[in-house]
Fold each of these.
Amino acid sequence: MRTEPASTAPALLSELERLCPGGVFQGVPLAQISRWRIGGPADLVLRPGSIEELAALRAFFHREGLPHLVIGATTNLLFSDAGLRPACIQIDQRMAGIEAVSQTEIDAQAGAWAPRVARVAMQMGLTGAEHVCGIPGTIGGLVCMNGGSQRKGIGSALVEAVTVDETGAIGIRRPEDCGFAYRRSVFQDNGEVVAAARLRFEPVEEAGRTRSEVRREMLRIMADRRRKFPQKEPNCGSVFKSNPAMYDDIGPPGAAIEKLGFKGRRIGGALCSPHHANFVVNTGAATAHDTLALITEIRDAVLASTGYEMEVEARYVAQDGSFHPALLPAEA
Ligand SMILES: Cc1cc2nc3c(=O)[nH]c(=O)nc-3n(C[C@H](O)[C@H](O)[C@H](O)COP(=O)(O)OP(=O)(O)OC[C@H]3O[C@@H](n4cnc5c(N)ncnc54)[C@H](O)[C@@H]3O)c2cc1C
């Protein structure tokens, strides 16, 4: 496989424009488009408008032996200060259809905004999607991360996922193929991209609830999140995953970090949020290196003090497009 960037050669660009019309962008500053507002330039960002375009792009890169990576809304990602050399397929609003396919099932394209899917479910008189109503990512990213809140993960609502493998072949994955575990799925490692997800939720009457109760619960969850989480400075949500044994013993990561006096600890522009210790925020000019150094310092201090090695949820994207836990000594 060639490792040089999917260069900006005119022939390559015109082929990509043919495969992904209106979705080819060069020299995109990741510090402007990423959620953490950190990262150098991405040489090439491709935003497919359909599953077929996504499959055609992957097939093309496979044929040409060109590396590429796939991202969603970047709400769980820290990009390298050097930016990204391989082509980056970003599945976003251009591929965000949501459709009710039965009284209990919703088809969402991978770029659909997770809170919007939760709202559609509530409007259909369904319950079970409330826990994702405040998670600011795409359905594709949510399935890949098995994201959720209140000790739930989206995997439990998945009926099937439409996937595109590295060769561009479109397939179907059932939940039992997806390796769902706490904030884990096979899509973090197997090279497949989630193109769409069919999700099933429960009718409110069967759960002994009403639609307005579900609506009120969603409003409460969103108000709680606004109160608990930092709102102003860019961040990627919880940096560390919760660990049940550590939780029972000393509490969630935020409590352990706070106890060690980290709230307000700063490295360069990266700050351990005074609002919630499990958030590292960008105060304006944070670099990926500042952020990795602070996360690593926190992880090491909690390990030394409690014996628990907290697992990092945020993923670092190196300039070669590889994904790593957001810790030093990854390249920054
Ligand atoms: C303020 C805030 C609060 C948050 N709260 C929560 C929370 O309560 N619970 C929670 O679980 N998460 C939370 N997160 C983290 C994040 O929102 C979720 O992990 C989200 O599901 C990521 O979606 P994304 O589209 O942004 O994916 P990205 O961050 O772009 O990508 C994350 C990973 O998914 C992969 N990926 C993206 N799209 C696809 C696809 N279509 N197919 C295959 N792989 C794909 C990427 O390669 C990457 O490895 C929070 C983040 C923020 C900023």
Note: The first helix runs from residue 10 to 19.
Amino acid sequence: MITTALTHRFGLTTPVIGAPMAGVAGGGLAAAVSLAGGLGTIGISGKHGVDFLAEQCAVPAGSGMPFGVGLMVWTLADRPDLLEATIAARPDLVSVSFGDPAPYVGPLHDAGIAVAAQVNTVADARLALDAGVDVLVAQGTEAGGHTGHRSLLPLLQEVLALTDRPVVAAGGIVTGRGMAAALAAGASGVWIGTALLSCTEGLNSAAARERVREATGEETVLTRAFDVAEGLAWPERWPGRALVNDFSRAWHGREQELVDDPDARQLVVAGRETGNPVTAPVYAGEAVGLVTTERSATDVVRDLDAAAEQALRAVARLLG
Ligand SMILES: Cc1cc2nc3c(=O)[nH]c(=O)nc-3n(C[C@H](O)[C@H](O)[C@H](O)COP(=O)(O)O)c2cc1C
């Protein structure tokens, strides 16, 4: 069994956190990750209502599983109801990412809830530490979904040098070898998203899962084109890593023109509605080429844990 500061803190049997992924990670996926001994989380965006949030949280909570909720800071100023509903759902962990977590740490701590924040730069990490965040998540640019521009390993090493608090690694971790590498580097756990994109418990469509299974690691693009098309107020410093498709091929790098082209923007909105991955974004990270089968998230996490243990034993043998 792999034990770290993270497993001790949350009573886990493996140091794996299922990433909050709005539109993919609901209560079913979170519960499946937690069933394997990790910590599953639920992704909440500014489009979600509080009823959805409460329903999804009730799934892992109802079966006595630990769970977390992932909020996006930039949505919370207009949506204080999301923070209130999150606190009311009594998760074990709340991540407040993509913005300054400071205003949200106090209310969450007052409710006895641990706080995580994904960080993309050293300045972000300092901000999170000053705010009193309990778990820092170094999110590399390899990650699927919205992310920064720094690679995981250098960022992780710099963040680890700043703090004794648990630091978790996010971005590109799909195999036991990848997980072992992050732990060997000093991370207290891994935060996996892309590895869970073809799971039976996900909220994503069958077409999106199929696209994920077919994609190679060379087929991702870090772009703002989808956010501009969807009219989302994502701060510019966090573009999204998605699978390339017809829309990104046409519009990535031409975001300014896209602002003035409602017909082109409508392609993404319609693609979202019909679940068409040719124009709608399928967010996924650089390790997507390793996701080739549709499986339960419980099996994904159990196998990841077993393979990481094996890889760590192999590393230990190098010492002779
Ligand atoms: C489809 C998708 C949706 C995501 N949505 C969110 C989200 O709602 N909130 C969040 O904090 N991070 C979100 N992320 C980022 C993840 O939390 C995490 O950093 C990332 O998946 C880790 O890298 P990996 O995908 O290579 O495992 C999302 C990622 C993906 C792939």
Note: Residues 5-203+293-313 form a domain with the TIM Barrel fold (CATH 3.20.20.70).
Amino acid sequence: MTVFDVRCDRCGTELTRPTEAVRFLFHPGDFSLKDDSGLLCRSCWRAAMGWFGVDQPKDQCARCGIAVESSRSVHVLRSGEAAGWQLCPEHAVAFLNQLRTVDPKLSVETLSLAGDWRQMQS
Ligand SMILES: [Zn+2]
Ligand SMILES: [Zn+2]
């Protein structure tokens, strides 16, 4: 009855079949604060994976490799998977700002690690 009618959070491509969509979630080191609305088309997910790298080092930024504390980093996981990537604030901002639903855009200063980055008042 309902049409699968969603768009990629990065490139805006219409996703007409569930198999074209990759769901992911992110949280600031506390799973209860997760935002699980992330949705990318397969090619954007591949691009994100290329950006993160295949390794999922613990307590290190997946992008630049600096040490981060679990509660001071953004964790990105593909939905349904237990392991994901951690990003330092700078790279978390870089990643999240690619998403069309993140508005207003974030800066390292405004990045909230309390999980409310989509509800921030300007
Ligand atoms: Zn896309
Ligand atoms: Zn980094």
Note: The chain has one domain: 6-96.
